[in-house]
């Protein structure tokens, strides 16, 4: 059998903040006045024919006329209850099978409402609602999964003639339906209601040629190994549909929509983006206050602090021997002795794993004093190249975040455009139905025109409301598309700035690489060898060297091989 939702019975009480008049106004899309509280409840924006497909109140045979008037019925229901925590109504919500038309869905819901009215001898207000076109997580439902559900709203008291001193008198809401207040008896009656719903669902689907496999029993009672689906609740569902991620929504996405490993990967991406955004926010706030976002220690000897905050290396960087090292500073031998490396050592050699450290391993210091000046100049340039790489990595993270956000915005716009086309088709079809009705009833239309005012036939007004409802949705969607266009324009402007920033960084990198090549072409080969894959791609993209790959065979003396260079007289 297929999976499907089942009916649900809910009790509304004053203790939980419920009001019966407000409840029926919402379910039937009416404007009603609550005489007990002196409050108007207006839900006419939920127009008949759009969100609400059918709204009607039914009563058992012999009931008074006011029992089918929602205003009179539910104000009497409120007046019949005296306790401040009284139960005022019950809402039996039933799902309607997919594939039924508006008329068929309404007929099925009304048949269920009349069954309850006869079984309990009370009135039932029916509101047949069209399901939302998005699910609880805000994802658009496929057309074949967009159906209906019905609210069957009924009082907690029977309709009966109230007994007075002279016997039975006027009709009213009399004795409580205690059967539904008792756990044992209510369970048996609810089973009866659910079985009736399943019978109606199978009858209406079979008549339309659809699969009639509805069963009111739970998966556990049917011995089916299907875990129950988690529910989000009204508040969480509203937040998810507005685009806010919630813990319950994340759990539902992980359990149902995404495999666990994919969910972990997606969550990691989100966390990484959040960390990057948080770091950018801290830097921006610090810059606004006029302070360095990451205060550093005093400049090292030989470092010049420029106006833009960039540390330019000292005029002459040279390999410092053990004897030449400043007093108290550790030397390269500290790496092997287990002693702590000093900041000064990191400055002239580079922290472990840095581009400068990798470069020094590939291009050792020359012994010839005449070559030392050029070597120290290359070291200074390599440090600046490494700074550009750091900026490029930060730029790449911001660009990816920008590109993903723009892609999501464009996808959202396209989805609205797709839905707009469908609603326009629905509006045109609704207009056609109005015109066809007018053509079939010319005398009624002429009579209505002669009367003027709001004297149009009820059938015509219902059909015309469907046109107006779809026109309102079209206006909302067109406004949403305009909003998406404005946001996409902002993304494009930001993309233009990111493009300029990238061009500036690549130009700086190209100038540094050209300077290294002009100083010592062998050092450029060593730098390319020492670079990581992403750094090598940036070096090649800068255009200072031809695109090459590490050699595994062939002549090692070809121009710009990636073999490490050993200077004459160098050890290692």
Protein described:
With 572 residues, the chain is of the alpha+beta class. Among the domains are: 8-226, BirA Bifunctional Protein, domain 2 (2-Layer Sandwich), CATH 3.30.930.30; 406-502. The chain is 51% helix and 12% strand. It contains 15 helices and 11 strands. It has helices at residues 20-28, 70-80, 102-120, 183-207, 234-241, 247-257, 260-288, 334-337, 343-349, 355-362, 369-440, 442-451, 458-519, 521-530, 533-541; strands at residues 8-13, 31-34, 39-42, 52-58, 87-96, 124-130, 148-155, 157-164, 167-176, 304-305, 311-312. The chain has a 5-stranded antiparallel β-sheet, sandwiched between helices. A two-stranded antiparallel sheet has the order 2-3. A two-stranded antiparallel ribbon has the order 8-9. A hairpin with a 2-residue loop joins strand 8 and strand 9 (167-176). The longest helix is centred in the C-terminal third of the chain and has 72 residues, at 369-440. The two termini are 75 Å apart. Residues 255-267, 291-347 and 547-572 have low confidence and may be disordered.
């Amino acid at each position: 059998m297929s999976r499907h939702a089942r009916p649900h019975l809910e009790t509304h009480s004053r203790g939980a903040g419920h009001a019966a008049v407000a409840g029926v106004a919402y379910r039937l899309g009416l404007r009603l006045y609550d005489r007990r509280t002196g409050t108007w409840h207006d839900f006419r924006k939920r127009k008949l024919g759009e969100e609400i497909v059918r709204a009607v109140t039914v009563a058992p045979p012999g009931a008074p006329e006011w029992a089918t008037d929602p205003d009179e019925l539910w104000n009497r229901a409120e007046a019949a209850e005296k306790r401040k925590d009284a139960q005022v109504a019950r809402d039996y919500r039933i799902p309607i099978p997919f594939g039924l038309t508006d008329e068929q869905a309404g007929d099925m819901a009304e048949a269920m409402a009349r069954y309850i009215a006869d079984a309990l001898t009370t009135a039932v207000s029916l509101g047949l609602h069209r399901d939302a076109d998005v699910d609880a997580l805000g994802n658009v439902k496929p057309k074949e999964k967009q159906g209906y559900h019905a609210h069957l709203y009924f009082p907690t008291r029977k309709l009966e003639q109230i007994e007075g001193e002279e016997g039975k008198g006027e009709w009213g809401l009399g004795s409580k339906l205690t059967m539904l207040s008792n756990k044992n008896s209510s369970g048996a009656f609810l089973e009866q209601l659910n079985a009736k719903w399943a019978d109606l669902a199978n009858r209406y689907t079979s008549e339309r040629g659809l699969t009639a496999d509805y069963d009111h029993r739970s998966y556990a009672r049917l011995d089916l190994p299907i875990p129950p689906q988690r529910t989000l609740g009204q508040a969480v569902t509203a937040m998810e549909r507005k685009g806010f991620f919630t813990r319950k929504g994340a759990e539902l996405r992980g359990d149902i929509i995404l495999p666990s490993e994919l969910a972990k990967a997606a969550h990691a991406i989100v966390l990484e983006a959040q960390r990057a955004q948080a770091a950018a926010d801290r830097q921006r706030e610090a810059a606004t206050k006029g302070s360095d976002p990451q205060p550093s220690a005093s400049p090292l000897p030989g470092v010049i602090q420029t106006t833009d905050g960039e540390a330019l290396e000292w005029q002459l960087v040279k390999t410092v021997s053990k004897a030449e090292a400043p007093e108290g500073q550790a030397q390269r031998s500290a790496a092997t002795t287990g002693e702590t490396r000093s900041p000064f050592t990191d400055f002239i050699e580079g922290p472990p794993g840095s581009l400068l450290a990798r470069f020094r391993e590939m291009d050792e210091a020359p012994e010839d004093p005449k070559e030392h000046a050029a070597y120290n100049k290359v070291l200074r340039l390599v440090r600046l190249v490494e700074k550009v790489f750091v900026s490029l990595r930060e730029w790449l993270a911001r660009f990816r975040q920008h590109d993903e956000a723009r892609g999501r915005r464009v996808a959202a716009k396209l989805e609205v455009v797709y839905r707009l086309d469908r609603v326009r088709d629905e509006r045109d079809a609704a207009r056609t139905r109005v015109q066809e009705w007018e053509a079939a009833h010319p005398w009624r239309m002429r009579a209505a025109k002669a009367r003027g005012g709001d004297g149009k036939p009820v059938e015509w007004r219902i059909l015309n409301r469907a046109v107006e409802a779809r026109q309102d949705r079209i206006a909302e969607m067109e406004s949403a598309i305009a909003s998406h266009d404005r946001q996409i324009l902002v993304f494009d402007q930001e993309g233009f700035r990111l493009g300029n920033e990238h061009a500036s960084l690549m130009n700086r990198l190209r100038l540094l690489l050209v300077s290294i090549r002009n100083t010592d072409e062998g050092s450029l080969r060593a730098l390319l060898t020492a670079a990581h894959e992403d750094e090598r791609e940036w070096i090649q993209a800068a255009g200072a060297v031809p695109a090459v790959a590490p050699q595994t065979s062939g002549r090692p003396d070809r121009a710009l091989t990636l073999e490490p260079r050993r200077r004459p007289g160098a050890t290692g």
